[in-house]
Amino acid sequence: MKKIKIWVFATVALITTACQSPTSKDKIVTKDSIEYKDASAVFTTASMVESYLQLGTALYNRDEAKIATVATTFAQVLTQQRPELAPTSSQENLKDILENSTENIQHIIASKGDLSHQVEHYQIVSQDMYDLIKLFGTAQELYKFECKRDNKPNIWLSNFKEVQNPYLGENQQPCGELIETLKQ
After folding, report:
1. Contact, 64 vs 80, CB < 8 A?
2. What predicted TM-score, i.e. pTM, was given to this entire model?
């Protein structure tokens, strides 16, 4: 009887160990995002990219109320990110991107009504989002544009192939050239 109890205990322990979720993080590509998943949680870039695209559209339309609303939402999305869920090799870069983007989004929020100041900070956020996508990829096709004015290149990302320059707005002469397509 004692041998049967030991055998049952060993079998249960072996099955329990074999059925446990792996601890390594796996890359999972879905229709809307790229996620990094472990047994307990998920890191995704989708909400950050979506907030960034909405901010670019609001700046392009010169909609001050929408800029404030979207920037506030973007700030919340950034603070909810958990870099520890990203692959270990990317965590420090992600922390830097999140910190820098959060600081610049706060400047955009604080400078309500000062479009030129908001655009200056959007330029930095654009570079951060480009770095984020280069680091983690994107599930949706995005386009990197560049507009060289006053010997200063400004980049932005868009989900439209048409030039919709958030630095100049919809009422200005179009400036921008598609320089890269970003996709998984």
Report:
1. no
2. 0.78
pLDDT category of residue 103 using cuts at 50, 70 and 90 = very high
Which of 100, 94, 144, 147 shows the shortest CA–CA distance to 121? 100
CB under 8 Å to 143, separation ≥6 — which residues?
Answer: 157, 158, 159, 160, 161, 178, 180, 181, 182
3-state secondary structure of 175: coil
Alpha-helical (H) ranges within 114-156 are: 115-136
Distance from C-alpha of 54 to C-alpha of 71, rounded to nearest angstrom: 9
CA separation for the pair 54, 58 (Å, rounded) = 6
Digit-coded pLDDT (tens) for 76-94: 999 999 999 888 999 999 9
DSSP for 50-93, please give it. HHHHHHHHHHHHT-HHHHHHHHHHHHHHHHT--GGGS-GGGHHH
| Pair of tokens at residue 1 | 């009887």
pLDDT, tens digit (0-9, with 9 covering 90-100), for 4-23: 444 433 333 333 333 333 33
Task: Give the model's confidence band at 176: pLDDT under 50 very low, under 70 low, under 90 confident, else very high.
Answer: very high
